[in-house]
Amino acid sequence: ILVEKGGYKHHMLREINEVPEALLRTLSSVQKRYLNLAGRLVTGADNIYIIANGTSLHAGMIASYYFSELAGISPIVTSAAEFPLYYLENVGPGTLVIAISQSGETGDVLSSLYEAKLRGATILGITNYVGSRLARLSNLYLPIAAGPEIAVPATKTFTSTLQVLYLVALSSSRQKGKIEESEQKARLEAIKKLAQSLDERLAFIDSEATKAAEKISLCRSGYVVSRGLTYPLALEGALKLKEASYFHAEGVEAGEFKHGPFVLVEQGFATIFIMPVEKVSAEATFPSIEMARQTGATVVVIGSENNQKLLELSQDGVTTIRAVETERHLAPISLAVPLQLLAYRLGEKLNRPIDTPRHLVKAVTQ
Ligand code: AGP
């Protein structure tokens, strides 16, 4: 497929700018009857595994919070590289495997599926390519419909994958009678609103991310720290920084920060906090932010635009990036964008081959 950069310097930047339209396309592409069917597969399964790699795995980790909170179901989330080696014992005819792969061609995902199918499991595939092997191996697949993604660092496919998983969790929740149809509809409206606000605010978020990237470019290494629903996003942010800018970063669960990771924090070290979406979790993270500031480390805090603490920190001279305010379960989608832009702008500043990082390919088929 020939995809032009459309006036952008890199595919990655174009693709981040396409996040809002991709969200809307995903919403109109995932058909209601297939979502109902997916919800039935989830609620009817004896046990559920979510398998994927890299960015798709991080989406799967966030989805485990969706399923647990909205449908009272706790799937096991694992790397597709681990699944066929360590998880087959309990895979059988009552098992549902939710396989996520934007390319639909990732080798570890496909070999996991062969093993799972041999044992009689049902496969729900989630992919951006309807003609992919993943789609063909699935009993039911749902399209991510983000449009072709060229840059190796995945961006718009991540946010749209999260959206598909959220829709499946909502459908499961509805089928378990945990939410009313009106609530399901309201939550779909919130996605549209988020896409619209993101579209309006992307340039502003980019300008804040660019300033933050300037500061981080002076550091040798860093952490991305968060908890709960946005903890997997910390892992994703660290992965994006590595791929797009060759900047060494590690995702840290905020509660673990003081149990070891803090030892490295000092001047010349970047500590990027993603403000947790729950008030209690956010408050529990404030002391870590202060601890990092006291060391003279470079501190960046990413949070929702109306977050009071974020405003206070910014007035106090801390570098902040303000993401679009949205409902709690959609926050990982909203907060992914500043992290993606941060990684992109840092890669640009450090003159990295952003779309084609060394040693990596778009689909790891072996
Ligand atoms: C994402 O930025 C990476 N390029 C990589 O981790 C990727 O997500 C992983 O290889 C899985 O790819 P898939 O979604 O096509 O299966």
TrEMBL record:
Domain of life assignment: Archaea
Keywords from the named record: Aminotransferase, Glutamine amidotransferase, Repeat, Transferase
MF GO annotations: carbohydrate derivative binding; glutamine-fructose-6-phosphate transaminase (isomerizing) activity
Known catalytic reactions: D-fructose 6-phosphate + L-glutamine = D-glucosamine 6-phosphate + L-glutamate
E.C. numbers: 2.6.1.16
Sequence ranges assigned to domain SIS in this UniProt record: 37-178, 212-357
Protein name per UniProt: glutamine--fructose-6-phosphate transaminase (isomerizing)
Organism of derivation: Thermofilum adornatum
Section covered of the full-length record: 244 to 609 of 609
